[in-house]
From TrEMBL:
Its main location: membrane. Catalyzes the transfer of the diacylglyceryl group from phosphatidylglycerol to the sulfhydryl group of the N-terminal cysteine of a prolipoprotein, the first step in the formation of mature lipoproteins. Belongs to the Lgt family. The keyword Lipoprotein applies. It is found in: Cell membrane. InterPro entries: Lgt (IPR001640). GO terms for biological process: lipoprotein biosynthetic process. One of its GO terms (molecular function) is phosphatidylglycerol-prolipoprotein diacylglyceryl transferase activity. The chain crosses the membrane at residues 25-45, 65-85, 105-123, 130-150, 186-206, 213-230, 242-269. This is Phosphatidylglycerol--prolipoprotein diacylglyceryl transferase.
Amino acid sequence: MQLLLIDFPAFKPIALEIGPFAIRWYALAYISGIVFGWLYARSLLKNERLWGGPAPISLVQIDDFILWVTLGIILGGRTGYVLFYNLPFFIEYPAAIFKLWEGGMSFHGGFLGCVVAVMWFAYRNGISILSLGDITTAVAPVGLLLGRIANFVNGELWGRATDPELPWAIIFPKDPTQLPRHPSQLYEAGMEGILLFIVLAIMVRFGALKRPGMILGAFILIYGLSRIAGEHFREPDAQLGFLWGGLTMGMLLSIPMLIVGLILIVLAVRRGAPKPAGAIR
């Protein structure tokens, strides 16, 4: 019944335009995610109770790290999209790699870019890689939430076709088939953004930051599970389609995350919380 379909909101791709200067929703989501994540990270570092003493990372260091992680997200995200999702096209049109305003970013590539940034920055500043990874991933769901909402606003990365009688089914204007589809961007925003943020925030409040690697492992594991679940409702990229056994590229890239996340959690539990200075040993 077509009456049950939700009309897709008439969003403009540009959020703010002043003369020749324009900010798109997608760029605004990245900027806002980084800013809010940075503010949240600072608040966690100021709370010594969460760390069992002074945080292993200073406020000055986290301020400096913002540039590093931003470059990791952008360079890694774009590189991941080129390699994982559309390599033949970019081999034929290499100049298109630099056209970031046309879209095309990979979370898994961006995550690997962040890993490199964390390891490099931690090594250069003599701080714990695991603790820096913990604070980075504790705030990451904020950016993931805003990014998925931006995907929805742009009418991209829509879901698989569904029953027209589904009350929240949507016909996306850019979809050539004009079929009713799942708003999978919002499903992913709920799982990768809201749910993941809440779970990690609860873990932080119960002392997970005292065990280096715990939050990092939980983030990797829960994101992998959420992404695999979300891929069941998301339409695969047209140039790739379904892969082996009905799997998608997003699923395949998320499977190793389950293993790595579980290993990090087990190691964090076995390692235990570091003893405060002056404690009886």
